[in-house]
Design a protein that fits this description.
The protein is an alpha/beta fold. It has ten helices and twelve strands. 29% of the residues lie in helices and 17% in strands. The protein has a twelve-stranded mixed β-sheet with strand order 7-8-9-6-5-4-3-2-1-10-11-12.
Length: 326
Amino acid sequence: MPLVDKFGRQITDVRVSVTDRCNFRCVYCRSANPENHMPSRDLLEWEEYERLVRLLIGMGIRKVRVTGGEPLVRPGIEDFIARVKALGAADVSMTTNAYLLAERCKRLAAAGMDRINISLDSLDRDKFERVTRTRTFDQVIAGIDAAQASRLRPVKVNAVLVRGLNDDEVEAFAAFARDRDLIMRFIEFMPLDADRVWTRDLVVPAAEVYQRIAARWPLVPVAHERSETARKYRFADGRGEIGLIASVTEPFCGACSRIRLTADGKLRTCLFSREDHDLKPFLRGGASDDELSEAIVSIVMNKEPGHRINQPDFVAPSRTMVSIGG
C-alpha cells in the first residue's frame, strides 16, 4: 500500500514533531511560553509515534526527520531514534537548536541517527541573544563543532534569512561553512511566524544569496534528488557547501515527497495545509493497523498540489511553524 497522491507523487519522507516545547524564547516564536503549550494529554506517546512510523515505513517512507519544538527537551528521544532505526528507516535525522547537542551528540549517533540539521539565525553573539532571548551562543557553537567531529558530519546549519534582521550575514555564514567544512543552508522566510509579520518585502530571494556568495567565492553545482528542497553548491576552491531553499521565489511543490506529523497527532500533507487530519481517534480508539493505514492512504491521496504562497487568494495556515514541526 504505497503512499502516492492523486498527482502521482510518491511520499518517502516524514517530519515527526515530538514536542511543541523549546528551551529558547525566540522573538518570532512563542513555544517557550507555557500558556501556549498543548495540553500534555494531547501529545502523542512514544508508543503511538512508533506505531505510526512502523506503518509509514511499511508504506514506503524512507526518511524520518525528528523535529519540535526542540526535540532534545523531550526525555527518551535517544531511545525513540534507536527504535525508528530498528524499524528499518533508511535515513533518520533531527532538526535542533543545538543548545544541548554537545552533551548528547554521542548518544544520538550511537542510537543510529544518520544526519543532523541545526538552526542558527545569526553568527553575531549579541544579535543571536536578542533573537533567542537566551545566552546560549557558545553552547550552540559547541554543539555544531561536536556534531561536525562525529559520524554525523557533514552538519547542515540552517539560517532563515529575514530582510533587516540577518541578511547582512550572508557572506559570514558562507565563510562559516568554509571554515568548518559544513553545509550552510539559506532558507527563504515563509509566512509561518507567530506574530504574523511576514510580508514579501522581508523575503531574501535565494537568487540574491547565490549572487552575493558567488561574487566572492566561485560555486560549483552539486547533484541532488528531484524531491530535495535545497539546490546545492560546493565552493570551487576548497571545503564547505551551501544549500538554497527557495520555498517562496522558486517553489518545488511539484516534486514534493513529504508529509508531517505534529506533536498532537495531526497528519499534515503540506506545510501550508489549511486543515489537519487527526490520527489520535484511530490510535486511541482501538483501530486496527489496516484501518489506520487506510486512513493515512486516503489522507495522502488528497495532498495539495502546492502551497499557493504566490497566489492572490493565499491564506496562511492557522498553525505556526512551532506547532507544525520544523
